[in-house]
Amino acid sequence: MSNPLVLIPARLSATRLPNKPLADIEGEPMIVHVWRRATEAGVGPVVVATDTPEIAAAVEAVGGVAVMTKADHASGSDRIHEAVEKIDPQGRHDIVVNVQGDLPTIDPRVIAASVPPLANPDVAITTLVALITRDEEKTEPSVVKMVGSEIAPGHFRALYFTRATAPYGEGPLYHHIGLYAYRRKALQRFVSLPPSPLELREKLEQLRALEAGMRIDAILVDDVPLGVDTSHDLERARAIIAARRKP
User: Fold this and answer.
1) Which residue pairs, CB below 8 angstroms and at least 24 apart, start in 48-53?
2) Which of 54, 57, 120, 153 is 20–30 Å from 213 (CA)?
3) For the domain 107-224, what is the CATH code?
């Protein structure tokens, strides 16, 4: 340990923002910006996993690597599992980092922060959280909260994830960021499990792992990366990237 591989699942089927991965940001498709951020993290090789030839072509046009996967995967986790088995059937990569394909402004340091906790062999999966600072987000179901025990400064053992306001009482609340680093064997086990009761109830895939007894650790980062789900989000991402490129 360790030899990480970064995988970015991407497909065109988003309903709120059609053709989202190919949306133009400063002259390049959004998926290319995500690929650049993941490459800048310096974690390991970066591969885009897609079912769409246009996405693969966009990545390959800038020197990136893409792998074609089936179109009927139920989740991004299933897609990256197929991708890693295609890319690395020998099992040389023992860590798989899953970076969502709609995070064009993500800080590369955030991606890199997900890997170190897997040095502990008891940890199966790591993820990220940020402190909730806006009151309205504390009760918003779309803001997923992590409930966990702090085992070191900024390092938590996750006990639960929920759309409810939790835990109860005075104290900080943490916004879960959907970026994961899997131990390779943990990813294989995870995708082999059926959806769990709490996963189906909360509509949160990570609960499947907790219900199966898999340990998830979470690392605190400074802020929540902007996920592009709507045209408004896309305009925000364009403004952020344009500002970064100004001399």
Assistant:
1) 48/7, 48/8, 48/9, 48/10, 48/101, 49/7, 49/8, 49/9, 49/10, 49/79, 49/80, 49/82, 49/83, 50/9, 50/10, 50/11, 50/21, 51/11, 51/79, 52/10, 52/11, 52/12, 52/21
2) 153
3) 3.90.550.10
Residues in the chain: 247
- Residue holding tokens 């922060």? 113
Helix or strand or coil: residue 9? Answer: strand
Pick the CATH number of 1-102 from 3.40.50.1000, 3.40.50.2000, 3.90.550.10, 3.40.50.300: 3.90.550.10
Q: Any idea which residue has 């835990």 for tokens?
A: 167
Delimit the CATH 3.90.550.10 region(s) of the chain. Answer: 1-102, 107-224
Confidence of residue 121 (pLDDT cuts 50, 70, 90): very high
pLDDT for 13: 73
Beta bridge partners of 156: 150, 218
Global pTM?
0.93
